[in-house]
Amino acid sequence: MDPQPHVDEERWDRARTRDAFGRLAVARNGNAPGAERLRDELVVAHLNLVRYLAVKFANRGEALDDLIQVGTVGLIKAIDRFDLERGVEFTTYATPTIVGEIKRYFRDKGWAVKVPRRLQELNLSVNRAIEKLTVSLGHSPTVKELANHLHASEEEILEAQELGQAYNLLSLDTEVTGDGDKNAQTLADYIGKTDPGLANLEDRTNLERAFEVLSRRERIILFLRFYESISQTEIAKRLNVSQMHVSRLQQKALEKLRDVLLEK
Amino acid sequence: MNQPEPSSEHLGTVELRIPSKPEWVAVARLAVAAIANRLPFSVEEIEDLKLAIAEACTIVIQQGGGSQAIDITCDASTSHLRVEVRDHRYRDRGESAKRPAVMAVEGEGLGIFLIQALMDDLEYSVDPQFGTELVMTKRVGA
User: Fold this and answer.
1) What is the predicted pLDDT for the residue at A8?
2) How far is CA A35 from the centre of its chain?
3) DSSP letters along B46-112, please?
4) Quick one: fold of B11-139?
5) Which label site among A35, A211, A261, B77 has the fewest CB atoms less than 10 Å from its CB?
6) What stretches in chain A show pLDDT beneath 70?
């Protein structure tokens, strides 16, 4: 993949790095004024290492400059903690620290959500580009043509097509709660349904409005009959009319309501 | 080497041989990504695996000494993914030849350290005569 131009540079650097760390330790112990400058020199001397590592993570949706910046923080931490007496090379020691800092940056940025989205977006644009290029080229496009068109690498195109959807697929039977017991709830249990109560609410509002066309007596009869479930005979007694009359009034009121509601 | 954990169940082994050339490394990356995707790895862990495999292939190509092919073996278990990357002419000389990454010597590049930082376990052997082998493991949920 990458040629490693750093090797020679690194070889040249090793003795000097060791020497600089030695002097830095002495300067720190003696509170000498040169410590800061030595530290700066070491940072600058290893920016290449940070860059080399940051580039490896550059395809993950964050700007390279940002990665270099957080990687440099890792480098500074490594310089401050490095002890020559450990007997390891500084690059050996610094690499996990720098990588750790870069990875933490991704984690803090909620990267786990970001990469699938990047692939999904690419997946969508790949599908659109296929249609477009099939027309403009007069043949089904090659991956290379797609990559050129979308300014992506060929590998990214393949990956977006193969894994773009797969990253996101979850079975509806995936358990969300419980440990495989009967009470376990699955994703499917959380899918929204049309709430029948909502339709009821609408009917109720319409009915309330329709009630306005009724006379006061008709309203009372319907209220007692349907809300309080009182028999026609009992209503008749309360209103001091015959049961037949209640029946007729109820009939007429229901017809009025029906007419009003059907008009809507 | 890596002792399989008691609760671990072997899922399958995938063997891949690619030409020992940089332009074929992407094939290994994609294959490992697809295999890792069958285990409960996060997207970030899959990206780390891809990067580690690419670095391993790069090391094998650089140290290959004219070897024509890279052999890649992926062992998938419920608890971990173990990937072996070696050049085709590699001859096993037993445990004594394997080294932990901190012993990396000059000229082997930074890739070893990078793989070490990305994987849970790495053992490798680079020898001009016997070839190069890297054995790395990433554990689920580590």
Assistant:
1) 45
2) 45
3) HHHHHHHHHHHHHHHHHH-TT--EEEEEEEEESSEEEEEEEETT-----GGG-EEGGG--TTS-THH
4) Heat Shock Protein 90 (3.30.565)
5) A261
6) 1-13, 110-116, 162-184, 187, 190-194, 196, 264
**Cα–Cα distance for residue pair A52/A46, rounded to 1 Å:** 10
Q: What is the pLDDT of residues B52-85, one digit of tens each?
A: 999 999 999 888 777 889 999 999 999 999 999 9
| pTM summary value | 0.63
Residues in chain B with CB shorter than 8 Å from the CB of A91 are 110, 113
- Alpha-carbon Rg for chain B in angstroms: 14
CB contact under 8 A, B47 and A88: no
The residue ranges of every structural domain in chain B are 11-139
Token readout for B84 is: 């072996």
A10, A88, A166 ranked by CB distance to B37: nearest: A166
CA nearest neighbour of A126 among A159, A101, A99, A100: A159
Say yes or no: ipTM exceeds 0.95: no
